[in-house]
């Protein structure tokens, strides 16, 4: 049995695309760049590649570290590496920072070659289907005609689902984790409140804060605090923080008193230090707009009719942001469309964030499904 171990030091790469891309909004970008990382070795048949799509605040840095003293490995380091469920001894894994991101790929903070200034408010909205098209172009550059699997959690799961619809011949398996076929009205409402926190920040300047030397930190901080509440479960928060007071007694004021308040403010402050507000707006709008059944009169079965992939759909019992019921909608549509699908509903207290956690049952499901894919590849 292979022993799990660290993937070690990794390096990000950059791909430059001079072929224009016309986005779903109708806007054409004449040129763009994508930052990506790869782990493992692409086999001679180029059949063992896995694409991992990131969620709202994720990026291309999936696993490993940039330096020996780096305390923060990639965001899915517990899942990706030698001997881990996404086994880099068997798979060639690709992670991409999506177009519109703020970790090196062309986005609102990038320099617009036409003006010499950051794109800012002029950067167009980007939909999930646009990300999938740019990911396919990167796959072409890497010589990958077909992915053994496309995997993603949350917004990443939406990308995996879209891959099977847009490029059915280019993906053999899709792992859709803690995701949904479209957002509920409640989810759209949460996203809008988060965006309003940013849009109404005096330091936002209509999205052109780069030229003003400011950051809409207050708005981004509030947006992250709100979002983080929805990523956790009530039981999880209760178990971890309860009603614990930092000083053990009431202070009769509006400063931080409860441990949960301290935690949320810490998360908000940390996020506002490294994430771009314009990118946050773009990512949440892409979530709102995702609805692959929209062009099929709302019929998800018809939307999935041409897919060829095998599917693994995973949900978590305490996830109320993307509840198990939403995953079961995907499963039912796939079954009604007579597609191959496996479903796992994992007991967890971690809420929506459970897809990022190291959970024995969750990892066992992932390992078993991916081991079968590896056996297909190496048969």
Automatic annotation (TrEMBL):
Keywords: Acyltransferase, Amino-acid biosynthesis, Cytoplasm, Methionine biosynthesis, Transferase. It comes from the Bacteria. One of its GO terms (molecular function) is homoserine O-acetyltransferase activity. The keyword Transferase applies. The active site is at 154 (nucleophile), 319, 352. It is found in: Cytoplasm. Gene3D superfamilies: 1.10.1740.110, alpha/beta hydrolase. Coiled coil: none annotated. Substrate binds at residues 224, 353. Its EC number is 2.3.1.46. Pathway: Amino-acid biosynthesis; L-methionine biosynthesis via de novo pathway; O-succinyl-L-homoserine from L-homoserine: step 1/1. It is an enzyme of class 2 (transferase). The keyword rRNA-binding does not apply. InterPro entries: AB_hydrolase_1, AB_hydrolase_fold, HAT_MetX-like. The record marks 321 as: Important for acyl-CoA specificity. Residues 48-355 form the AB hydrolase-1 domain. Homodimer. Belongs to the AB hydrolase superfamily. MetX family. NCBIfam families: homoserO_Ac_trn, PRK00175.1. This is Homoserine O-succinyltransferase. It comes from Chitiniphilus purpureus.
């Amino acid at each position: 049995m292979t022993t799990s171990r660290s993937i070690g030091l990794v390096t990000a790469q950059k791909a430059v695309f001079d072929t224009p891309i016309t986005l779903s909004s109708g806007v054409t970008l004449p040129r763009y760049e994508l930052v990506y990382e790869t782990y493992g070795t692409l086999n001679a048949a180029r059949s063992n590649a896995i694409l991992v799509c990131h969620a709202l605040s994720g990026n291309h840095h999936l696993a490993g570290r940039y330096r020996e003293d780096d305390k923060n490995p990639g965001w899915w380091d517990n899942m990706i590496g030698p001997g881990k469920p996404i086994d880099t001894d068997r798979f060639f894994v690709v992670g991409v920072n999506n177009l519109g991101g703020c970790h090196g790929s062309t986005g609102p903070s990038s320099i617009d070659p036409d003006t010499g200034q950051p794109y800012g408010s002029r950067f167009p909205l980007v939909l999930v289907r646009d990300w999938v098209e740019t990911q396919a172009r990167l796959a072409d550059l890497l010589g990958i005609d077909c992915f053994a699997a496309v995997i993603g959690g949350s917004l990443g799961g939406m990308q995996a689902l879209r891959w099977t619809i847009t490029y059915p011949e280019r993906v053999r398996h899709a792992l859709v984790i803690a995701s949904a076929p479209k957002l509920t009205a409640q989810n759209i409402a949460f996203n809008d409140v988060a965006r309003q926190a940013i849009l109404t920040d005096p330091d936002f300047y209509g999205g052109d804060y780069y030229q003003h030397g400011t950051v809409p930190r207050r708005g981004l901080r509030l947006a992250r605090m709100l979002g983080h509440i929805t990523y956790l479960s009530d039981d999880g928060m209760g178990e971890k923080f309860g009603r614990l007071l930092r000083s053990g007694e009431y202070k009769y004021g509006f400063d931080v008193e409860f441990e949960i308040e301290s935690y949320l403010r810490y998360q908000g402050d940390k996020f506002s230090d490294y994430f771009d507000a314009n990118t946050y707006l773009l990512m949440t709008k892409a979530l709102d707009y995702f609805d692959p059944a929209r062009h099929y009169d709302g019929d998800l079965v018809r939307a999935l009719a041409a897919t060829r992939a095998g599917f693994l759909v995973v949900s978590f019992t305490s996830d109320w942001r993307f509840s198990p019921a939403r995953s079961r909608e995907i499963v039912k549509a796939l079954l009604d469309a007579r597609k191959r699908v496996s479903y796992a509903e994992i007991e967890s207290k971690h809420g929506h964030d459970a897809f990022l956690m190291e959970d024995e049952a969750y990892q066992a499901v992932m390992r078993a499904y991916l081991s079968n894919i590896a056996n297909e590849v190496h048969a």
